């Protein structure tokens, strides 16, 4: 998950160091940044969207991800039925 997040950040225009650093912070939901303006430093809609997507994925219970993916493909019904959402 961290590698996917770092790759997405890098493809969206971050330097490799920033991409890796921000992916660690995003997946851990820590909110730390290498810049004083945090993610706003990059002024990029794509980077903001990547951050939101990976924050939502990371905030979710990993057992729920396993249930949704284990039966061969993504089954959104597991997410919609879960009280966490």
TrEMBL record:
Keywords: Cell membrane, Ion transport, Membrane, Transmembrane, Transmembrane helix, Transport. One of its GO terms (biological process) is metal ion transport. The chain crosses the membrane at residues 45-70. It is found in: Cell membrane. It holds the Pfam family TrkH. One of its GO terms (cellular component) is plasma membrane. Its main location: membrane. One of its GO terms (molecular function) is monoatomic cation transmembrane transporter activity. It comes from the Bacteria. It is a multi-pass membrane protein. PANTHER family: TRK SYSTEM POTASSIUM UPTAKE PROTEIN TRKG-RELATED (PTHR32024). Belongs to the TrkH potassium transport family. This is Potassium transporter.
